[in-house]
Design a protein that fits this description.
By secondary structure, the protein is of the alpha+beta class. About 25% of the residues lie in helices and about 20% in strands. The chain has a 4-stranded antiparallel sheet, covered by helices on one side. Helix 1 packs parallel to helix 6 and helix 5 crosses helix 6.
Length: about 290
């Protein structure tokens, strides 16, 4: 699933390409009666209303909240897109490759170019919300603070972690109600950087260890954005190109490989923690 760096990379690409354009048409071949998709374009009844509401509207600006893309349009409406497991957005003239072929939704603009949503597993979510009350919606009302925000300080991190004192640090880091945007990939890399074992209970962490985790969060997420996200799986940017963060993994999916930490003799091991995989060094992450 795309995490904060992948979503941020997509948002920055959209800001450069579709901001200021007017929506002229919208299409989808999604069609489901699943009640969980009742307020999504995958539901034909909702899509009919969605289309009526967005046609003729101008793209004002695009922003990110956690793993959600927010496309703000005139008439005080916001198109919310969550890419879920395999989704990614593509702009006109994107690179054609097998991963980009699962097109299930498009928006056509007044410049005759299109924005496409490719989603192999069709788990993605596209809905329409009132801009003024979007933070109160069920989609965003239970999300923790943004870890790259200037207001996200060491003190804030301590407060957030203490909401789950008996939780294992790996599980707490990927809990969106605690901190926004971190998932499996970046939690593994953060904990490797901070020399913290993923099963360590939050209550057992010392102040110095939390400080190292704080620094690692800022460093690793910034690095993820710098390299255009991680494309070990399906993620592609709006031009259909892969990110390069997967070339810089220290832990994630490096099972049985030698640890890359200087002077460390450990190897990377994989373990399931609360239903999610964790990759960590057998030696320096204690």
């Amino acid at each position: 699933m795309p995490e904060l760096p992948e979503v941020e990379t997509t948002v920055r690409g959209l800001q450069k390409t579709i901001r200021g354009l007017v929506i002229k048409n919208v299409w989808t071949d999604l069609n489901t009666k699943d009640k969980r998709q009742k307020e999504s374009v995958a539901n034909p009844k909702f899509f009919k209303t969605f289309k009526k509401e967005i046609l003729g509207k101008k793209i004002l600006f695009i922003e990110r909240r956690a793993k959600n893309i927010l496309i703000n349009i005139t008439s005080n409406k916001t198109i919310l897109i969550h890419m879920k497991m395999t989704g990614h957005l593509l702009y006109e003239d994107y690179k054609k490759d097998p991963i980009n072929r699962f097109i299930h939704f498009t928006i056509t603009f007044n410049n005759k170019k299109k924005l496409y949503f490719s989603d192999a597993r069709k788990f993605g979510k596209i809905t329409l919300l009132d801009t003024k009350t979007i933070e109160e919606s069920k989609h965003l009302n239970n999300i923790g603070p943004e870890p790259l925000d200037k207001k996200f300080t060491l003190k804030v991190l301590r407060e957030r972690l203490n909401k789950k004192p008996n939780g294992k640090i790996k599980s707490v880091l990927i809990d969106q109600s605690i901190i926004a945007g971190i998932g499996n990939i970046y939690s593994d890399e953060i904990l490797w950087q901070a020399s913290t074992h993923p099963e360590c209970k939050v209550s057992k962490l010392k102040d110095g260890e939390i400080k190292l985790i704080f620094k690692a969060i800022k460093k690793i997420l910034t690095k993820g954005i710098k390299f255009g996200g991680d494309s070990m799986s399906d993620y592609r940017n709006i031009y259909g190109l892969p990110g390069k963060f997967q070339l810089h993994h220290m832990a994630y999916r490096r099972t049985r490989e030698k640890c890359r930490r200087k002077n460390c003799r450990g190897t990377i091991i994989r373990k399931i923690i609360n239903g999610r995989s964790a990759h960590f060094c057998s030696v320096h992450q204690k």
